[in-house]
Design brief:
With about 350 residues, this protein is of the alpha+beta class. It is built from twelve helices and 17 strands. The strands form three sheets. Strands 9, 10, 11, 12, 13, 14, 15, 16 and 17 form a nine-stranded antiparallel β-sheet that branches. α1 crosses α10 and α4 crosses α5. It starts with a strand and ends with a helix.
Length: about 350
């Protein structure tokens, strides 16, 4: 079976790496000439809106998926008329737009921080009066890894913040003094089978995910699974879905969802019986989900901006290196390190050395 992937970055690369043992082949549609996934399949180097390239992709593959939410909705809709596209277009359209996403969460009884739509400076002033400060002004679309956001505090100049987002449609979201950030990776097959990975605790630096640690028997697991199930069923979802939460006072507030494999689930490659990447491919090709059970105590550390000493790293026990084949650049994800050990104490000891 041939699988088409919109995008050619590290997530597409890891999907292909997990799919080859299952006999899958891959075609990537990506406008970047040196896309890091290109070596693992056929690369159609064209814009996502290029209809001729979309037609070519549709003729070459049996099913299409995508590695990030910024792919144009019209392109996905066009492909969906010709062959299956998973996750479904409704999930993509919802996740692309923070206002639609937050409204859906609330409709399904899933708690969020307070939020208000902002389409003008006047709207922003009214939203601040309603929600208060501190708060975060976020573009409705295309923001990730801290991009498209302005933090507002007492004394902040609202016009500067509005100008900073170039007057893009936005939402103002109340600041949450959370105790920790966690995420859940869930998967649903075309026949409705669902599986959930253990919760992950996440730590960010400068708005970019830095460290993800798998959690065993976490007290928030049941609630996170309940929220994920509501979304999976409502969206008639197929594939992997990642959901990020803030934990506060024994409750979970949903921050956002990602209709794809996710950075906070990279630890599953070595740390779970079946990785998130393999389970995504299983789901979109009609295969049953694999076990999401832990194989040990695991964590993932992103490599950002510059590469570490590879020789030293590879001499460390229980440590696995994944490089994406990207040129070094400030703020760029170049790879990740997974640590998987038999005990929580040994995991913490190894992480302290990285």
């Amino acid at each position: 079976m041939k699988i088409g992937i919109l995008g050619g970055g590290q997530l597409a690369r890891m999907l292909a790496l997990s799919g080859y043992p299952l006999g899958f082949e891959f075609v990537f549609l990506c406008p970047v000439p040196d896309a890091c996934a290109a070596a693992l399949g056929e690369h159609l180097c064209a814009d996502f809106e290029d209809q001729a390239a979309l037609q070519q992709l549709a003729k070459k593959v049996d099913v299409v998926t995508y590695e990030f939410e910024s792919v144009p909705a019209d392109s996905v809709a066009y492909l969906n008329e010709k062959l299956p596209v998973y996750p479904p277009p409704l999930a993509l359209a919802t996740a692309r737009d923070r206002l639609l996403e937050k409204n859906l969460f609330n409709e399904l009884g899933i708690n969020t921080a307070a939020f208000v739509a902002v389409n003008s400076l006047a709207d922003l002033e009214e939203a601040v009066a309603k929600i208060g400060l501190p708060a975060i002004l976020k573009t409705r679309t295309l923001g990730y890894d801290g991009k498209g956001q302005q933090r507002l505090f007492a004394g902040s100049k609202l016009k500067d913040a509005w100008d900073g987002l170039h007057h893009a449609a936005a939402i103002l979201e109340g600041f949450v003094g959370f105790e920790r950030e966690v995420s859940i990776i869930a998967v649903r097959s075309a026949s409705g089978e669902m599986a959930f990975y253990p919760l992950t605790e996440n730590k960010h630096e400068d708005g970019i995910l830095h460290l993800s640690t798998s959690l065993r028997d976490d007290p928030m697991q049941t609630l996170a699974e309940d929220y994920a199930q509501r979304l999976l069923e409502h969206l008639d979802y197929v594939g992997v879905l990642a959901i990020e939460f803030f934990q506060l006072d024994g409750q979970l507030l949903v921050n956002e969802m990602a209709p794809r494999v996710h950075n906070s689930g990279h630890w599953t490659i070595e740390g779970a019986v079946t990785s998130q990447f393999e389970n995504h491919l299983r789901a979109i090709t009609g295969l049953p989900p694999g076990s999401t059970a832990l194989t040990g105590h695991s964590a993932m550390l992103n490599i950002i901006g510059e590469l570490p000493d590879i020789r030293t790293l590879l001499n460390m026990p229980n440590t696995h290196l994944h490089l994406y084949g990207k040129a070094a650049r400030a703020g760029r994800k170049l790879g990740h390190i997974t640590v998987c050990t038999e005990s929580e104490a040994s995991l913490k000891k190894l992480l302290a050395q990285l």
